Amino acid sequence: MTRILHISDTHFGTERKAVVEAVLDLARSLAPDLVVLSGDITQRARRGQFAAARRFIERLSLPVLAVPGNHDIPLFNVFARALNPYGNYKRALGPILEPVFENDGVLAIGVNTTRPRRRKDGEISDSQIARVAQRLRQARPGQLRIVVAHHPVRAKVESDLSNLLIGRERALAAWAEAGVDLVLGGHIHLPYVLPLASASGPAGWIVQAGTACSHRVRGSVPNSLGVITRQEQDGAVVCHVERWDYAAGTHAFAPVDRTLITR
């Protein structure tokens, strides 16, 4: 079995300490092969906030694939935003903004959809689309093929249409043709799973995560995260995406929804 823990929008600087500990407890219990952090790791891209994120990652003691979100670029420090927008991010999390993780069960490809010239909107370029598509085509048989970005590519509610990634239709068409299974994202603090339809029919799934540990929850949606499992049953590959919510009464995360992923 391959297991992935999908965490997003931790917004260190606004984190709830009890929820952070619950995330760590769940990670220790599940022992995933990979932890995905799909952006907005900090609230304002400050050194102290990135230091807290670094300590969190070190306590996980697990492989981590992280991509930046719009909150991981300085907002008020205009000089840093213009001259070295990812300086604090790289200092804490390493120099690679678009990492790739691979083992026998999964190929996960990170994409940086942030743009320093934009305050919050995300964008993807033709060269990024082509790079990801090429890498997807190189996946080994049986690998779960995942793309990780911060900004969403499909909306569940109309109010989120303005938050969608610029260039998403070109990206999704190319990635569907290249065999993507899951596109993971965050940004809007609303967890959901939607099928990715293409001209030839179903071609992968969109998986959005909520905010894992920040007090900046959306409406009545609690802190939440995702657990993705891939296993072989009777010669076939079976994949499930589970949503886990934080329950204040137990100070722990518990599963509340499960989606069978097919392709």
UniProtKB/TrEMBL annotation:
Query: What Gene Ontology molecular function terms does this protein carry?
Result: hydrolase activity; metal ion binding
Record's signal peptide: none
Q: Where is the Calcineurin-like phosphoesterase domain?
A: 3-190
Q: Which Pfam families match?
A: Metallophos
Enumerate the UniProt keywords alphabetically.
Hydrolase, Iron, Metal-binding
Q: Which family does it belong to?
A: Belongs to the cyclic nucleotide phosphodiesterase class-III family.
What is this protein identified as?
Calcineurin-like phosphoesterase family protein 2
Q: Organism source for this protein?
A: Achromobacter arsenitoxydans SY8
